[in-house]
């Protein structure tokens, strides 16, 4: 694969230091995060011929997709592991497998306010009164170090929050004299707390004395040709240094996540090519998802200053469209979204569930709001709250506001339909565009020819991220509803259940999984079910979801 001049110039700047690297595709999306002891050597391997390219299809796909990369230097390999896990959870790259779950690195926790404090391992910092050490890159190293700490400072290892004399009878730590047994009064609570505080200092990095002692014992064992003992002490010394050194450094380093894109530059480029009065602070993107006209849903994603504002995401189930008609679905979603938004801005109460919002008359307040917005977008200077430079450092506003740009996933037809619905609401001046997938063309209402900027244009990269995010949200919502419908279809097998009683069950319990755990009495409390019917329905569920019988032996 030929290496571009941009990649070659960047490789020359990568240091021979430990760190984390991020591979990006042509859209600026992070597709892989890795760690390295030597960043330059590791990153360069992706752009050199190797035998791995001949058999590893996944590696080939990754290398072919790389368009750019970033790196972040750290002080040690342990810090590289921790930062790698953090970045993978942040960006969720599609070529990474490890660290994609919600599992976190281990922490050591101690609460000095407990009557008899104890050291425990945890993965979440959910106790503000406790003191935490970590996170630790090596779970084995921290477990072995914690055992060493307990033996060194005579600390308890029992699980009881406040051990008593009854616990002492079965306490192996106390009988082996590893623990000073404060539960039976061998030491006072104040004396034991001093032991715990000394152990805290040790975990914070004040362990030079013990490290020197272990090293001396290791050399003594080696001189006596007791190599097994020397190897054991060597490993323990490495665990000790790895654990305490990582804690000391990591707590002081102010990590900042590398940015995969430059949103401000992309917003300026987008405003320039579209002729907007200012970079659009709020962009809302729409997409429709359905399979053969069934389970029609739509998504709304909101971006503030070029970044996702997930608190403003919305999902819609199409209510009025029969069959497969993406244009009608888009019209319904635009109508419902901005009619509701105008209601919120004017202080109009939300309509009851199930009402047809399209047929409601527009009150004068809504017309005034629409006129004000239309006038602003016809050329009046942008207000202070839409100024990109001022809003860049601010959080997304909590008050409802109309977007500065609307992005439709589709071509000319979807854009014209959306623009027509906006005009009916008095919002015809709101800029609305569509992004067609085949050539990444920008379609605008009233323009016969689409706008082609090229795949490397920063405005296109921003629009692609918004379009892809709306596509992801719509598809995931459709998939979730489909799985729910499949599980709910089991209820149709029960004789005489009907749609009314089925809806009552799902409204009461929420899902088939919860319904399976319900008792006969709880099912009988649902309207339409008596005691006998509830018992038969419970027996039906138990038989329907019973585990398969084991096959006979032989």
Write up what this structure looks like.
44% of the residues lie in helices and 13% in strands. With 554 residues, it is an alpha+beta fold. It has four domains: 5-91, GIY-YIG endonuclease; 106-250, no CATH class; 264-483, Nucleotidyltransferase, domain 5; 494-544, Orthogonal Bundle (DNA polymerase, domain 1), CATH 1.10.150.20. The strands form three sheets. Strands 7, 8, 9, 10, 11, 12 and 13 form a seven-stranded mixed beta sheet that branches. A hairpin with a 4-residue loop joins strand 12 and strand 13. Helix 9 packs antiparallel against helix 10 and helix 12 crosses helix 13 (364-377). The longest helix is centred in the C-terminal third of the chain and has 31 residues, at 458-488. It is extended. Mean pLDDT is 77; it is low at 246-260, 353-359, 376-393 and 548-554.
What is this structure's SSE topology?
Layout: H1 5-11, E1 19-24, E2 30-36, H2 39-44, H3 57-65, E3 68-73, H4 77-91, E4 106-110, E5 120-122, E6 131-136, H5 139-153, H6 165-168, H7 172-175, H8 189-203, H9 208-223, H10 227-250, H11 263-274, E7 282-291, E8 294-304, E9 307-308, E10 314-317, H12 326-346, H13 364-377, H14 388-391, E11 405-409, H15 412-424, E12 432-436, E13 441-443, H16 458-488, H17 498-509, H18 512-516, H19 520-524, H20 531-544
Parallel strand pairs: 7-11, 11-12
Antiparallel strand pairs: 1-2, 1-3, 4-5, 4-6, 7-8, 8-9, 8-10, 12-13
Helix pairs in contact: 5-10, 9-10, 11-16, 12-13, 12-15
């Amino acid at each position: 694969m030929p290496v571009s001049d941009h990649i070659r110039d960047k490789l020359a700047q990568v240091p021979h230091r430990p760190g984390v690297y991020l591979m990006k595709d042509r859209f600026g999306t992070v597709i892989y995060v890795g760690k390295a002891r030597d960043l330059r050597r590791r990153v360069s391997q992706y752009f050199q011929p190797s035998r791995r390219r001949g058999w590893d299809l996944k590696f080939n796909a990754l290398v072919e997709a790389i368009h750019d990369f970033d790196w972040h230097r750290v002080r040690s390999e342990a810090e590289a592991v921790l930062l790698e896990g953090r970045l993978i959870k942040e960006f969720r790259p599609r070529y990474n497998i490890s660290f994609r779950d919600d599992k976190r690195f281990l922490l050591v926790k101690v609460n000095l306010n407990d009557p008899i404090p104890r050291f425990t391992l945890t993965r979440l910092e959910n106790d503000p009164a406790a003191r935490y050490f970590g996170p630790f890159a090596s779970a084995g190293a921290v477990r072995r170090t914690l055992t060493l700490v307990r033996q060194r400072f005579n600390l308890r290892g029992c699980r009881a929050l406040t051990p008593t004399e009854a616990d002492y009878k079965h306490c192996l730590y106390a009988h082996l004299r590893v623990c000073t047994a404060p539960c039976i009064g061998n030491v006072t609570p104040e004396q034991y707390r001093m032991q715990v505080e000394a152990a805290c200092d040790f975990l914070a990095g004040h362990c030079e004395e013990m490290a020197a002692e272990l090293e001396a014992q290791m050399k003594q064992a080696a001189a006596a040709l007791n190599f097994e003992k020397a190897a054991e002490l060597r490993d323990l010394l490495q665990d000790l240094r790895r654990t305490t050194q990582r804690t000391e450094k990591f707590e002081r380093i102010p990590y900042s996540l590398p940015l995969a894109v430059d949103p401000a530059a992309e917003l300026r480029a987008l405003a320039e090519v579209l002729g907007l009065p200012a970079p659009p602070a709020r962009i809302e993107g729409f997409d429709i998802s359905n399979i053969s006209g069934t389970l029609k849903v739509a998504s709304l994603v909101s971006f503030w200053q070029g970044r996702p504002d997930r608190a403003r995401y919305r999902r819609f189930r199409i209510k009025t469209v029969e069959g497969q008609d993406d244009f009608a679905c888009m019209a319904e979603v635009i109508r419902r979204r901005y009619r509701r938004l105008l209601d919120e801005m004017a202080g109009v109460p939300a309509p009851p569930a199930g009402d047809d919002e399209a047929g409601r008359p527009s009150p004068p307040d809504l017309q005034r709001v629409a006129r004000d917005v239309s006038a602003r977008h016809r050329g009046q200077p942008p207000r202070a709250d839409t100024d990109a430079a001022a809003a860049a450092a601010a959080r997304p506003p909590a008050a409802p506001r109309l977007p500065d740009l609307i992005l439709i996933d589709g071509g000319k037809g979807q854009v014209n339909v959306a623009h027509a619905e906006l005009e009916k609401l008095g919002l015809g001046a709101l800029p609305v565009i569509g992004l067609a997938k085949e050539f990444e063309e920008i379609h605008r209402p009233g323009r016969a020819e689409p706008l082609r900027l090229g795949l490397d244009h920063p405005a296109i990269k921003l629009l692609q991220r918004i379009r892809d995010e709306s596509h992801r949200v719509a598809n995931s919502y459709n998939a979730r509803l489909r799985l729910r419908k499949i599980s709910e279809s089991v209820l149709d097998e029960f004789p005489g259940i009907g749609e009314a009683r089925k809806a009552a069950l799902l409204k009461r319990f929420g899902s088939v999984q919860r319904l399976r755990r319900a008792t006969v009495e709880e099912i009988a409390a649902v309207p339409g079910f008596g005691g006998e019917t509830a018992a038969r329905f419970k027996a039906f569920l138990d038989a329907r979801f019973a585990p398969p019988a084991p096959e006979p032996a032989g």
